[in-house]
Amino acid sequence: MNHPISISLIIVNRNVGELLSHCLDSIKANGDISHEVIVVDNDSSDGSQALLAQKYPEVKLIVNSQNLGFAAACNQGIRTSAGKYPVLLNPDTVVEPGCLKGLFDFMESNPKTGIAGPRVLNPDGSIQSNCRVVPGYFNILFARKSPITVAWPDNHWSRKHMYRDLPEDKSSPVPVLSGVCQILRREMLESIGLLDERYFMYMEDMDICLSASLNGWQIFYVPLARIMHHWGKSSEQEKTRMEDEHRKSMYLFFEKNYRPNIFQKIYLKIALSAHKLLT
User: Fold this and answer.
1) Read out DSSP for 198-215?
2) How far is CA 15 from CA 92, 122, 276, in A?
3) Is the pTM of this model over 0.90?
4) What are the domain boundaries of the chain?
5) Rg for the chain (alpha carbons), in Å?
6) What is the CATH number of domain 7-278?
7) Helices (H), the chain
8) pLDDT tens digits, one per residue of 21-67
């Protein structure tokens, strides 16, 4: 199938209109590749929709009358998109010049890659780890938001869990990439399906990476492409609910992918309950 547009940027927005504006401005600076932008708005009340209509009329806007969650909104954008490669992008990001072309060129040169993602930087320029191991019953103790990692962020096991020691001058295969920015191959989506909409928020990125790997697709970290990310600006508006959604999604991930027995289910529930108490 011929695609006149190289990439379709799909951005799910909820009440972060100002940051979304910075993101869209940065996309305009990536004029070296043909693209379209699709914003799926999850019932924002901050004037985001009016901002888009006034300042960014070229953006395709999908308006939801309720918050459908991240996975469902991304799928709406993917189904609407016309580009060769859909790109899932958070609204609280700034895309550096050349990033989108770099990701596109990488996918063109590596046909076995199903998902790729850029280097992600914090606003101060430090590296924001966006690679992960696939969560397992033991290594979830060292996940990014686990009490151990929060209390002792530079321990060996947490560094290993989050692939903090990858080379920054060449692309590397990784098990999982965060959903901050993912470029997706359509052939992969056709073979494994879209994001699992049972995940309201969180873990859908890990789930699709695992599904891709199990079906023979590669996942790559492409550090020469770069974005800056303001961490969690949407989710912090509903912090308690989003933390609960994260724990629900974690349990769903294990239930779906590992089919835990009764003892493993008890372990998960105790671990997630302890996480809630400690955070």
Assistant:
1) T-SSSSHHHHHHHHHHHT
2) 11, 21, 26
3) yes
4) 7-278
5) 18
6) 3.90.550.10
7) 17-28, 48-55, 70-80, 99-109, 147-151, 156-161, 186-192, 204-214, 239-258, 262-278
8) 999 999 999 888 999 999 999 999 999 999 999 999 999 999 999 99
Q: Give the separation between CA 162 and CA 129, rounded to whole angstroms.
A: 6
Q: Which two three-digit tokens encode residue 202?
A: 């969180």
- Burial string for 208-230 (b: 16+ CB within 10 Å, else e) reads bbbbbbeeebbbbbbbebbbbbb
Query: Quick check: helix, strand or coil at residue 122?
Result: coil
**Structure tokens belonging to residue 115:** 């998902």
**Terminal alpha carbon distance of the chain:** 49
Look at the block and give the residue holding tokens 């965060």: 178
Task: Determine the residue type at 190.
Answer: E
Identity of residue 114? G
| 3 state SS of 250 | helix
d(CA 15, CA 1): 36
